[in-house]
What we know:
disordered C terminus, two-stranded antiparallel sheet, 10 helices, globular, 2 strands, about 65% helix, mainly alpha
Amino acid sequence: MKKKTRLTDKQRSICLSITGVIITVLFLFPLYWMVTTALRQPGETFINPTFFPRSISIEAFKMESANGVGFLTYLKNSIVISAGATALGIILAVPASYGLARFRSKFVGVMLFVFLVAQMLPSSLILTPLFINFKNVGLINNLLGVILADATLTIPFSVIILRTYFKDIPKELEEAAIIDGCGAWKTFTKIMLPISYPGIATAISMSLFMSWGDMVFSLTFLNKENLKPLALILYKAMSELGVRWEILMAYSTIVIIPIVIVFIFMQKYIVSGLTAGSVKG
């Protein structure tokens, strides 16, 4: 009988490393092609394209102002919308997730199901009712309307993430704080929040990602050029003569740079937050 060959720990480590490098390259290649396309000469993408640009050009990155609105205005609007939607989502999601994790009720399962369904619903499904309600209260062409609309997507996700974190914290810590004389509010703010900061950091990061890249709500509720966020500049690359791919890729590169920076600094918390509770029943 043939003996089964087993890999040593070193060989297994090498195989896993090679596999990891291959998977990383496959995932990063679209980003590489996006950046190199933005640096190519006009038309080079479809005329004998090469792996590297024949000559570097930054003409695609020169954003033209529309109706006197420049890049900084789009950037400011994106920051206001993303920060507002994230702050609103965290303020509401943190106490909601803490209550769902700590207080026993027969309606907890129902509420979690509602949050899960709300997260799964496509944005287009709620556009019409939101548009009607926002129009009645004067939130069309108002950044607050987009902030509230984005919060409908960030809050369910944040609640699901943070509930797992609060649930994993031992109840003995709360009981000890109560014995020491802390009330419910002080226990929540002084004990629970500091311990759950990795989960909160994860919720903040994911909320920023979701609200920063939103185009559906901004395109629906904002008609004035000076109110549009950075993500909508992608439409500037589309004209009657077709899509200007170099400009589209250049604008896409500009849009994702803040997200990449946030991910680099927050990746430890994002990974720990998304995997929290995965090994428990």
